[in-house]
Design brief:
Elements lengths: L9 E8 L5 H4 L3 E8 L2 E9 L10 H26 L5 E3 L4 H13 L3 E5 L11 H12 L3 E4 L2 H11 L6 E3 L20 E6 L8 H8 L5 E6 L5 H10 L6 E5 L6 H6 L3 E4 L8 H9 L3 E4 L4 H4 L5 E4 L4 H11 L6 H11 L2 H16 L5
Parallel strand pairs: 1-3, 4-5, 5-6, 6-7, 8-9, 8-11, 9-10, 11-12, 12-13
Antiparallel strand pairs: 2-3
Helix pairs in contact: 2-3, 3-4, 6-11, 9-12
Length: 363
Amino acid sequence: MFAEEGHKVGVLHARFHDLPSATWLKGPSEPITMVEEDGLIVVRARKRLFQPGPLHRIPPVYRSSVRAREKLALRMYDAYKAVHGAPDIIHAKSAMWGAILAKAIAERDNIPYVVTVGSSVFARGIVGPRERKTAALTLRSANRLLSVSTTLADDLERILGIQASAFMTVPNMIDSEKFPYTPLPENEMFTFGYMANLVEDKGHRTLLNAFVDVPNAKLRLAGDGPLRAELEAMTTRLGLDGRVEFVGPVPREKASGFFQAIDAFVHPSRYETFGIVLVEALSTGRPVIATRCGGPNDIVRAEDGTLVNVDDVDGLAEAMRSFIGRVWDTQVMRDGVEARYTKEAVRNRLLGVYETVLSPPRP
């Protein structure tokens, strides 16, 4: 989105194959390559790592793994700099390895770096104490910290000990042209939709249990995953076969059609750092019901829909019943997306961040 405005943008994309993952044998190392794609200079490389993941609990092994990643990143950066010169600023879109590699480059060449955090790995307990310590040190040394939601910043304060106030909220963006505003459909029966992988954290069981108490409505579930058979059986057991439809995976290029065919979007997830599908639904002009599970807390305004508590079957059912027959100003939803989540809106916020980092105000 910066290249469109005439800025030079380089992207380093390093991939690592760790022992004993399946990709260690199937994913070969690849040399550094550099190409131009859609106005971006993209540098890629892939490397096998020889420090087995299970042994990362041993400090020397873990440090060796970190150094191996940093060395490849520095080589990739040097290849870029030799052709295109040094950048003014580095922006890492990762709280873990992306930030660690950005820090290695920034400290060696004395370049400021910014980090955007957006992953749920810390809140979900996926990373261990070594990774948490490394991430905390890396984030503290960044020139500016950004978070895709205020609740994620709160989580990182609790987990990494970094004050939530240190993070500026800059959300993810969408291409609103791919999710055009359309009038509400003329469905014979009010139709709710949900698009998510059929996995534990997405709250499908809560949704189905709630939908039992939402008469005169249909529910379309887009997505696939390991819980599909269980959820289909649950639908039958609850007597919902005639009102719930599993539509399977929806390709991204057809996602807007899914939103256009429903009257409202429901999102019962148990944890989200952001919630891009909510923004896509609102861009189309569809009111939303979401849980207070993180990112949606920032996204859903009173004019956009309703928030309910996580795993609250009765609250979700009540919210869904209240939507049937309710009149919304759907243009306000679209306008809110244009103001907060388009490329232009997010680009302007980021450029403002970069300017303050590169030209800090005088004391």
